[in-house]
C-alpha cells in the first residue's frame, strides 16, 4: 500500500508541474522502482492519473464543503488549502486549464457538479446572512460570483507573485470584500 501511495504522490507532483507530459518511467524513477512494478498497482498511466485526480477532488471538496458554513471561514479554508502546498495550487490550475481529455466526461464533470454545489452553499450562506441583516439585500448570485472570483483571483496572484507578498494581505482583502457587501 505504501508503494501505491508513493506512486500517486509522484504522479500528483509530476502532473502539477508537467501536465500529461510526464511518463511512467519518471514516476518509477522518482519512487525508486522499476517501471514494470507500477503495473502491479495501476493498469496504465491513465488509471494512475484518474486515481490521483479523483482522490484530490474528493479531498478538496469534502474538506471544505462539509465543514464551513460562514463565508470568512470558507474563504480562509480554501486559501489555506493551497497555501499548504504550492504543488496543489499548480495541480488544480493545470487540471482546470488543461484537463486531460480522457477524463472530461467523468472527473471534469464531477468537478463541475461539486463546484456548483459549493456555489450553492455560498449562495445559501449569503441568503441567510441577508435574512439576518448581516449582509445588505442584493443579488445573492452576484455576491457569490464576486466571492468566488475573489478567491480565484487571489490563487492566481499567488502563482504570479510570491505567495508571501499576497498572503500577508489576506485579512485586509477579506475586510475590503466584507465591507463592500455589508
From TrEMBL:
Stated name of the protein: HTH-type transcriptional regulator SrpR
What positions does the DNA-binding region cover?
23-42
Query: Transcription as a keyword?
Result: yes
Q: Which gene encodes it?
A: srpR_1
Please state every residue range assigned to the domain named HTH tetR-type. Answer: 1-60
Q: Does the keyword DNA-binding apply?
A: yes
Sorted keywords for this record are: DNA-binding, Transcription, Transcription regulation
Q: What are this entry's molecular-function GO terms?
A: DNA-binding transcription factor activity; transcription cis-regulatory region binding
Q: Which domain of life is it from?
A: Bacteria
Q: Which Pfam families match?
A: TetR_N
Amino acid at each position: 500500500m505504501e508503494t501505491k501511495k508513493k506512486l500517486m504522490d509522484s504522479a500528483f507532483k509530476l502532473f502539477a508541474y508537467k501536465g500529461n507530459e510526464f511518463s511512467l518511467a519518471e514516476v518509477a524513477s522518482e519512487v525508486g522502482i522499476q517501471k514494470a512494478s507500477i503495473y502491479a498497482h495501476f493498469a496504465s498511466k491513465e488509471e494512475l492519473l484518474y486515481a490521483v485526480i479523483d482522490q484530490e477532488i474528493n479531498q478538496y471538496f469534502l474538506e471544505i464543503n462539509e465543514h464551513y458554513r460562514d463565508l470568512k471561514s470558507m474563504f480562509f479554508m480554501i486559501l489555506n488549502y493551497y497555501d499548504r502546498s504550492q504543488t496543489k495550487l499548480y495541480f488544480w490550475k493545470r487540471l482546470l486549464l488543461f484537463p486531460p481529455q480522457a477524463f472530461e466526461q467523468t472527473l471534469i464533470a464531477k468537478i463541475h457538479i461539486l463546484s456548483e454545489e459549493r456555489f450553492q452553499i455560498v449562495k445559501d450562506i449569503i441568503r441567510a446572512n441577508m435574512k439576518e441583516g448581516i449582509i445588505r439585500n442584493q443579488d445573492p448570485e452576484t455576491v457569490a460570483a464576486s466571492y468566488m472570483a475573489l478567491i480565484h483571483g487571489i490563487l492566481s496572484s499567488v502563482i504570479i507573485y510570491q505567495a508571501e507578498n499576497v498572503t500577508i494581505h489576506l485579512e485586509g482583502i477579506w475586510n475590503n470584500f466584507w465591507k463592500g457587501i455589508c
